[in-house]
Amino acid sequence: MSLNVYAFTCGWLTLPAALLLAGEKGSLTVPVPAYLIEHPTGRAIFDSGLHVETQTDPNRRLGRLAAFHTVGFKPGEEIAARLESLGVAPSKIITGHDPDLWKTIPQAPERLAVRPAATA
User: Which one of 13, 77, 78, 117 has the fewest beta carbons within 10 angstroms of its own beta carbon?
Assistant: First the structure.
């Protein structure tokens, strides 16, 4: 049984360092990750990066948090583009833990097919 995990950067956030490290000054730029897990029974997404609408309207997507963040997120960095770069059609993703996933990937299936975790 083979398992593959792919990590993607789907945007960047620059924010006050003190939000992540108590007492630190200045700012930090951090990646916003997304992961594709390929399992013999299908593919799943864990996290999905920034919502694609953040590229054009970060204030709407981040709300009050937008005042504390600078968004770095260009077309081609969204999860759908990252999947397509591997030849994975977003419509073939079977599950994801992120409740916003299906809004993030417009091409994803309409319904989330959640499979229960195996028990030991």
Answer: 117
Question: Tell me: the pLDDT tens digits for 30-54?
Answer: 999 999 999 888 888 888 888 888 9
pTM of the complete model: 0.75
In this structure, what DSSP letter does residue 55 have?
G
**DSSP run (H or E) holding 47:** strand 42-48
- pLDDT at position 116: 43
- Pairwise CA distance, residues 116 & 79, whole Å: 24
| Interacting residues of 94 by C-beta distance below 8 A, sequence separation 6+ | 41, 42, 43, 44, 109, 113, 115
What domains can you pick out in the chain, each with its CATH number?
A: 4-104 (3.60.15.10)
Structure tokens given for 27: 């700012």
